Amino acid sequence: MFEFLKRNQKPEPIFETLGIDLHNHMIPMVDDGSESAEMTVGCIRTMWECGFRKMYITPHFSFPRYPNREDDIVQRFNEIKKTLVENGVEMEMLGIGGEYQIDDGFAPRMENPHFLTVGADNYLLVELSLHQLRMGFEQVIENLLMKDQQVILAHPERYLYLSSTPTRFETLKNQGVLFQCNILSLAGFYGHEAQSRAVKMIENGWVDFLATDLHNYMYADALRAATHNRTVQKILGKYKFMNKELEIKHRNKI
Ligand SMILES: [Fe+2]
Predict the structure, then answer these.
(1) Considering only Cβ atoms within 10 Å of each terminal Cβ, which end of the chain, N or C, has fewer?
(2) Which residue range forms the structural domain that includes residue 46?
(3) How far is CA 152 from CA 29, 44, 92, 124, in A?
(4) What is the 52 CA–ligand 1 centroid distance (Å)?
(5) Taking the CB of residue 226, how many other CB atoms lie within 10 A of it?
């Protein structure tokens, strides 16, 4: 753990090959992510140093913990974008998405969907509870796919309660769900089990995106250290990910 906390370790820009980050919590004070505009500026500077050049921001939408509203989040995104420019941060902001938890608040959203998405209109980042299985989540995902939403499942390697049923992941892949693993999982930030599962999923060819899931300075320090991590370096050198394709879709949309 202490490896991640080394401050002032000079990062290498190894994430240039990914180019775009599609999952992080850099809107200040709307979830468990950034606590201030100052923290957002600092964290995004670190992301830049680590090689990211463009990004989306994806605050939590979950019930009842983070009852965010899309219109409010869009407004806050425009504000932080301005602050970043004023502070000379070069990172290009591609847009504002969300990380939607499939929970009790999700069904009502389905009735009148106006999700904040990444890349193309139908790239929807969803997450499950980290702690317990939600019965019927596959059906919710199936409904989204039927409504032509392209589902990206955030950090599948972190749902350890699904470890005894690995075929669930295969089913999701066969349904057409895209997987996004966390870079920090590969570096061991969430423990050995998440790390080995992330590596295995990538080796299986199941993982479409890597992302930071950056929350605060501690994560930024971990990301900096991850640029020196051999597992992370090996994975980036050996496998291809779709991060840059998000922008192609984004540009096509315009
Ligand atoms: Fe997240």
Answers:
(1) C
(2) 2-253
(3) 24, 23, 22, 6
(4) 17
(5) 28
**This model's pTM is above 0.90:** yes
Model pLDDT for residues 142-191, shown as the tens digit of each residue: 999 998 899 999 999 999 988 666 688 999 999 999 999 999 999 999 99
Task: Tell me how far the alpha carbon of residue 60 lies from the centroid of ligand 1, in angstroms.
Answer: 7
Cα angle vertex 178, ends 21, 234, to 5°? 60
> What is the rounded distance in angstroms from the CA atom of residue 74 to the CA atom of residue 239?
34
What CATH number does residue 47 fall under?
Answer: 3.20.20.140
Distance 23 CA to ligand 1 centre (A): 6
Shortest CA distance to 172 belongs to which of 195, 199, 142, 144?
Answer: 142
Ligand 1 is a single-atom ion; what residues have CB below 5 A from it?
99, 213
Number of folded domains that form the chain: 1
- Cα distances (angstroms) measured from residue 250 to each of 17, 158, 183, 254: 18, 28, 23, 7
Q: Which of 25, 44, 18 is nearest to 210 (CA)?
A: 18
Distance 99 CA to ligand 1 centre (A): 6
